[in-house]
Design a protein that fits this description.
about 20% strand; 6 helices; Rossmann fold; about 35% helix; alpha/beta
Length: about 210
C-alpha cells in the first residue's frame, strides 16, 4: 500500500512513518520540515516538502497513494487553524484525486458523553481544551460532509512512547476501561491496523492504553 502521511514530523507522525515502513508500505511523508526531521535513506520513503494550505502541494502528495493518515498538530488555544483548514484542503484534494480512505487524529472532546451530548459540551470538560476541541470539531465536519471513507480517532493525552500493542477501543464513545492516556506508538499502530481492517468506517474512535 502507498500511504500519504500528513503531519509526518510530529510525535505521532514519526511513529506512523516508522511503523508503516516496517509493515512494508510505501510512505509519502508530507510537511514543511520533512528533510530536517525524517531519515532520507529509508527504502520506500518519499519526503515531500510542502504547505498544507496549498492545493497543488497537497495534490502532489496524494498522487499514486491508496490511503491517507493525518495527524495534524497546532496550538491548544484554537487560534491556529491548521487542524480544521488543513483537513478541509486534504478532503477537497482527496476527492479531486479519487483517493477515498483516510484515518485522522482528533481529540477526546469529540466522543459521546451520552447519546445526545459530546464530551466537549459537558459542564466538567476542561475549559483549556475547548479551543483545540472546536478545531477538531470543524475538521470532523469536513470529513462528515465528504464522500470519503473516514475514521476519526479521538485520543486522550498522548505519551511520547513506542507501541505496546495493548490498547482499548470503542466506536464513538470512550473505551472501557479508559485510563485517559495513549502511547503515540499505539495510536499509530491502531491507525495503520484500521487501514487494513476497516472496522470503524465513518465513525469516531475512543482509544486508551
Amino acid at each position: 500500500m502507498t500511504i500519504t502521511i500528513f503531519g509526518a514530523t510530529g510525535m505521532v507522525g514519526k511513529q506512523l512513518v516508522q511503523q508503516a515502513l516496517f509493515k512494508g508500505n510505501t510512505v509519502k511523508a508530507f510537511g514543511r520540515n520533512v528533510f530536517a526531521e525524517l531519515p532520507m535513506e529509508e527504502d520506500n520513503l518519499q519526503l515531500i516538502k510542502g504547505a498544507l494550505f496549498d492545493e497543488g502541494d497537497v495534490r502532489n502528495a496524494l498522487k499514486g497513494c491508496n490511503a491517507v493518515l493525518s495527524c495534524l498538530g497546532g496550538d491548544f488555544g484554537g487560534d491556529d487553524k491548521t487542524r480544521s483548514l488543513g483537513m478541509k484542503n486534504i478532503v477537497a484534494q482527496m476527492e479531486k484525486m479519487d483517493v477515498n480512505r483516510i484515518v485522522a487524529v482528533g481529540g477526546l472532546g469529540l466522543l459521546q458523553a451520552d447519546e445526545e451530548t459530546i464530551q466537549m459540551d459537558t459542564e466538567d470538560f476542561p475549559k483549556e481544551y475547548l479551543g483545540v476541541s472546536m478545531e477538531h470539531k470543524k475538521a470532523l465536519s469536513y470529513l462528515q460532509a465528504s464522500t470519503l471513507n473516514w475514521t476519526f480517532v479521538c485520543p486522550p493525552t498522548i505519551l511520547n512512547e513506542g507501541p505496546t500493542g495493548n490498547m482499548f477501543t470503542a466506536a464513538n464513545f470512550p473505551p472501557f476501561p479508559n485510563h485517559y492516556k495513549i502511547k503515540a506508538g499505539d495510536l499509530a499502530l491502531f491507525m495503520l491496523t484500521e487501514l487494513e481492517r476497516n472496522e470503524f468506517i465513518k465513525q469516531r474512535v475512543g482509544i486508551s492504553n
